[in-house]
Amino acid sequence: MNILVLNCGSSSLKFQIIETDMDMINSDSDKMLAKGLIERVGSQSLISFQVVGKPSFKSAEPLRDHKIALMYAIKWITNPETEIPGIKDISDIHAIGHRCVHGAERFKKAVKIDNDVIDGIEDCIPLAPLHNPANLKGIYAARDIFGPSVPQVAIFDTAFHSTIPETTYMYAIPYQFYRRFKIRKYGFHGTSHRYIAYRYRILNNLEREQVNIISLHLGNGCSACAIKNGFSLDTSMGLTPLDGLMMGTRCGDIDPSVIEFLAHNEGITIDEVFSVLNKRSGLLGISGLTNDMRDLLEEEKEHKDRRATLAIDMFCNRIRKYIGAYMAAMNGVESICFTGGIGENSPDIRRRAIKGLEWFGIELDDELNNLAVRSKEMLISSENSRIKVYVIPTNEELLLARDTLRVVIDAKRIW
Ligand code: AMP
What we know:
By secondary structure, the chain is of the alpha/beta class. The chain has helices at 66-78, 115-123, 131-146, 166-169, 175-181, 190-204, 257-266, 270-279, 282-287, 293-303, 306-330, 340-345, 347-354, 366-371, 396-409, and strands at 2-9, 12-19, 31-39, 44-51, 57-62, 95-100, 111-112, 152-156, 213-218, 222-228, 231-235, 335-339, 378-379, 388-391. 39% of the residues lie in helices and 20% in strands.
């Protein structure tokens, strides 16, 4: 079954076409056939499409909205000259999987999209005002283009974390605010953490219930997840993706009093404070240079920039704190898994994040750690390390495609 996986942001549209294997549902035989990215939807859009194994197609066109952008992508996908194996026309796309950010307490697993589900995603907009409307644009566009006969599935970033217990997901604020507004920890990057748990299970030939790991998704957005017996026990993002680890431009954990203090003393509105915390903080805020870890490491090396070093050290320190907290919450852990752009590609950050955890018996093999670049899946801890450390490149799209297949054929297993 050929599945179109769609990930729509407020001004972007990302897709992959994945040929899933109906019979071997847990195998590695699913194949990505093509992928694409359209940025700046709504103005002069930047287009980059690629059939696997072929040179990429790049262009710039004014694509007014997500529907026009998707139509443009479909035209390329079905163009005979594009030559995607097995795709001749639109009928060769059998189902569509949408990455949806917030499913709140309503969506605990992937669901087939109907009017009721669309209403539910709309109901979650107050909790994800930037993301859910963009996801809905993708859903509406796909429905208009493909019609009702092609099943569409919504897969939620929050769903994997629906197993987090009440004692962990509640905030210690008056209970009525949970009752009235559903204010609580939800967590994000769920599909990525679930993929890491899945790969870890496959790599070590384990049953799902035997997976006891800390997954560290370190990209532009960062989150940690304590996965106990195969399920999310805790994660660092909260009601929104602002909480937890330090990120490219987001502050992560912060004393809420800072918000009031800034609003008062800087004379800015609450919205402006949140704009600072979301867009001008994290690595960018501390370094004053960039939100890009690769550039920051370069600055540190080339110019010995003190604030670049401070930003990187703060980033690593926060990771260590979460590792320690989750080891306690889980009553022990077998492995720590790094993923995301930084986690998959930076031996330096992994080394600096793990340094100081020797007391717990965690030790990297420097040679292996240095080899784990350009998204290689491998073990990087030393033979003596009591807790193993892995690099596992994430592949959310693959899981989105599998979830879509499972919902469409009504399979019971979720990974
Ligand atoms: P993502 O959001 O997962 O695409 O990750 C983006 C982040 O990964 C950016 O901060 C990049 O600078 C960082 N990144 C990618 N490659 C490297 C690398 N080789 N070393 C350090 N950071 C990297």
